[in-house]
Design goal:
The chain is of the alpha+beta class. It contains three helices and twelve strands; from the N terminus they run ααββββββββββββα. Bound molecules: calcium ion (CA) (4 copies). One calcium ion binds next to loops.
């Protein structure tokens, strides 16, 4: 029995020589993941930095290959709600390896209604999450980012009606985990930054405002057009009124 096992290892090893090291590694990782998925163990066994927790009772894991290399790059964890014929699966967590390096780069958590709650992502693929997106009622309300890779949030983006409305930046790096201390505020209208305030001396108040002059000019031109239109309309109204007054007087 042992001899057969050794033989098959040798044969497999010889077969393996035909493929590149990369392919073999990928295949090994793939099998590894499949077995961990099938056994229902926690996802951390494969060390892919997975965060979807399938270890709680009633949770199920599925893995998918979306890039076509037969290696799963997306993991979904579901819970079962209801019983008997009413039983149905709800997605509670989805995570993906976006660049195919075997490490999960983005994870999104959902509530029991399948609406997103929170997403964490590693935008620069260095193995550390650097962007958090927070949802309310299925819509993005806030993003928190570490843009300089020092492990601390230095930028927050506030969303309104599916659009970024304002950003706050901590350029001086004075914020702590419990105390956010921005020193730049940027305001957006129709997708463009129109106003930017900077706190130069660190007292939390804006000392300098910068405005998008082109945008301000456009607004000013629009305001004048509307004034002219209103004035023209008013002229007509006054003329009629004048005639009426004349007739009555
Ligand atoms: Ca990755
Ligand atoms: Ca990162
Ligand atoms: Ca930072
Ligand atoms: Ca100031």
């Amino acid at each position: 029995m042992m001899r057969i096992w050794i033989l098959s290892v040798l044969v497999l090893g010889l077969l393996g020589c035909g493929s590149s090291h990369q392919e073999r590694t990928a295949r090994a990782q793939s099998e590894n993941r499949r077995s961990s998925s099938m056994s229902g163990s926690t996802n951390h066994a494969t060390n892919d930095q997975g965060r979807c927790d399938a270890s709680q009772p009633g949770r199920e894991t599925s893995e998918y290959d979306t890039s076509g290399d037969d290696i799963p790059d997306v993991r979904k964890v579901f819970i079962t709600l209801g019983e008997g014929r009413d039983a149905h699966l709800i997605l509670v967590c989805r995570e993906a390896d976006l660049n195919g390096d075997g490490t999960k780069d983005v994870v999104r958590y959902y509530n029991d209604e399948g609406r997103p709650l929170r997403e964490e992502s590693d935008r620069n693929f260095d193995g550390t999450m650097d962007e958090i997106t927070i949802f309310e009622n299925g819509r993005i309300v806030r993003q928190e980012m570490d843009t300089n890779g020092d492990g601390r949030v230095d930028m927050k983006v506030f969303w309104q009606d599916n659009h970024p409305e304002r950003t706050e930046r901590d350029m001086a790096g004075r914020s702590t985990a419990t105390n956010w201390q921005p020193d730049r505020w940027e305001y957006f209208e129709n997708g463009r930054m129109v106003r930017m305030g900077t706190d130069l001396d660190g007292d939390g108040n804006v000392d300098r405002w910068d405005r998008d002059q082109e945008y301000q000019d456009q607004l000013e031109a629009q305001r004048r057009r509307e004034e002219n239109q209103a004035a023209n309309a008013a002229d007509g109204g006054v003329g009629d009124g004048g005639a009426g007054e004349g007739a009555s007087g």
